[in-house]
Write a structure and sequence with these properties.
Length: 255
């Protein structure tokens, strides 16, 4: 008996076994959810396919979230194979590496547009295609970071993209609430994933959280995934439009 028996979900954003999306996938699978996965490019396909297959997934589909035709074809396949969908997990972000260092003021027009397209608009584009097959009680979950609210060195344009993602999540929650579809975001503390690799100052940030946060430790992918399970399940049936912090309490501290 699982919390999610008989339900079906799709996960955007598994890159490898360290991905937050992978921890979420395992948690949802353990509670009985059947899962579909998307990936970008051949290199990532070779990483994602074995992970997805280890959870019994058969729908493993290419999707570059900047491509409307990719998004359309993902949901055509899901509709044909499943007919309906209960949970959508968006765990996707990207900015050009050169925009994640130095001063925010130097962000290029193209870099700004790309970061917001992949990291924020994609939630709206994906939700629009998913909603026609989502029934009452379905849920949409995305991943964000406190850099949307406060300034963190080098996070730069990603902070602006996460602010747009969180606001988009609230507007989607208002649009979809009348249909019984809930939309929430999880604001995770820093976690060592592929997306954290080569970010200058990332280890220092982990140390600052472990020192300053009420819980005096960093969060794990598994802790983030437990909140995703709560948001995907009827345990959170009264919760929509929220940004839930899974950050050892770091965000509540002033001084
Ligand atoms: P990750 O690198 O494992 O995941 C990022 C994913 O984005 C990858 O799977 C990548 O393929 C995907 N992606 C990038 N461009 C794409 C595109 N054009 N189309 C489709 N997919 C694309 O890293 P992660 O840390 O697990 O990141 C997942 C989410 O969690 C992101 O939204 C990130 O901003 C957020 N987050 C991460 C942290 C952290 O410290 N790691 C903290 C808070 C929030
Ligand atoms: O959202 C993120 C990271 C997202 C990300 C990471 C990369 C690295 C590789 C987006 N685009 C790229 N592009 C690349 O080429 N996080 C919350 C993790 C993160 O990234 C930081 C952080 C934290 C925390 C960057 C600077 C400062 C803090």
């Amino acid at each position: 008996m699982g919390l999610l028996d008989g339900k079906r979900g799709i996960i955007f954003g598994v890159a490898n076994e360290r991905s937050i999306a992978w921890a979420i996938a395992q948690k949802l699978h353990n509670e009985g959810m059947e899962l579909a996965f998307t990936y970008v490019g051949k290199t990532l396909e070779s990483r994602v396919r074995p992970l997805a297959e280890s959870l019994g997934a058969t729908l493993i589909l290419p999707c570059d979230v900047t491509d409307d035709s990719d998004i359309k074809s993902v949901f055509e396949t899901v509709k044909r194979e499943w007919g309906s969908l209960d949970t959508l997990v968006h765990s996707v972000a990207f900015a050009n590496k050169e925009e994640l260092k130095g001063d925010f003021i130097d962000t290029s027009r193209e870099g700004f547009a790309l970061a917001l397209d992949i990291s924020a608009y994609s939630l709206v584009a994906i939700a629009r295609e998913a909603v026609p097959i989502m029934k009452e009680g379905s849920t949409i979950i995305s991943m964000t970071y406190y850099g949307s609210v406060k300034v963190f060195p080098n996070y730069n344009v990603m902070g602006v993209a996460k602010a747009a993602l969180e606001a988009s999540s609230r507007y989607l929650a208002a649009d979809l609430g009348p249909r019984g579809i809930r939309v929430n975001a999880i604001s995770a503390g820093p976690v060592k994933t592929l997306a954290a690799m080569g970010i200058s100052g990332f280890n220092a940030l982990l140390n600052i959280v472990a020192e300053k946060a009420p819980l005096k430790k960093n969060v794990t992918q598994e802790e983030v995934a437990s909140t995703a399970l709560y948001l995907a399940s009827p345990l959170s049936s009264g919760v929509t439009g929220e940004v839930i912090y899974v950050d050892s309490g770091y965000n509540i501290i002033g001084a």
